Amino acid sequence: MSPSPLHLNTPLLRSAADYSASGKPLWLKLDALQPSGSFKMRGVSRLCQHEVENGAKEIFCASGGNAGIAAAFAGRALGVPVTIVVPETTSAEVRQLIEAAGASVLVHGSVFDEANAYAIKLSEARNAAYVHPFDHPLLWEGHGTLIDEVVASGAKFDCVVVSVGGGGLLAGIVAGLKRNGLDNVPVIAVETEGAASFHEALKAKERITLSAITSIANSLGARQVAQHVFDLPSHHPIESVTVTDAQAVAACLKFADAHRILVEPACGAALAVADVHAGLLSRFENPLIEVCGGIGVSLDKLKVWKERFL
Fold first, then answer.
1. CA 142/CA 102 separation, integer angstroms
2. Which CA distances in Å does 190 have to 90, 99, 104, 271?
3. In this predicted model, what pLDDT tens digit does every residue of 139-176 receive, in sequence order?
4. Is the entire prediction scored with pTM above 0.85?
5. Are strands 287-291 and 59-62 parallel, antiparallel or unpaired?
6. Cα 258 from chain centroid?
């Protein structure tokens, strides 16, 4: 018998048709309300549970923030120590939030790739479990539970809009659609300009690595998507689009005003699609937007971003 999941079945809201330029009512899956503040709680906690079930006494994870705090919550629930390796780009506030959730935080490297390599090295040296933040089948299985919940609610939807960083959430949504017999439901994958590793890879027809992440949506800051994610469009209908940082921030502010919930620009990117790519979304009757959340946001940060971009 599998253990009880550590994530929540999050609310599903329906927006009014006039909320966005698409003119369509939107289903909003509120994973910003997960205990860790983002969708990462789904897959990361599933993978942590699996490792502990198989004897792990300690967990290492590399993260820009959201996977790290999810692993911290999971480790606390499972009773094992967790160490999160973050790159120098992760803010002091996010590091403090991860520590407050019960994990140890190490800073290593200027980019995620360097932090990740160090996390793997430490886990091997200590014979501990290593939890990847976006590239593992159990992560995808966990993230796909959001589709299970929407289907179980009886809500009808004909496309899914999702932000893409390393691609774990996109992979999970495709897995969730497949296991619910919804292989024909297209996914609109959105990134901010300056963090569009998936979009650029599809354009180049190869899994390229971005030279740098220049977007403020730094939790979308994987310079290269997972191989599995790059391969997804070959067997599932996926449309890749981008929005600007300013458009993502505008969507965060609009969402906060309408729903009294703060989300990162990485999540704002998905919310922005209904306005920025209104023509694309208007082809559908019942779009579902994954409101993935994120801990890298505050009232002060929203104010700064508003002054900078809008």
1. 22
2. 22, 30, 32, 9
3. 999 999 999 999 999 999 999 999 999 899 999 999 99
4. yes
5. unpaired
6. 22
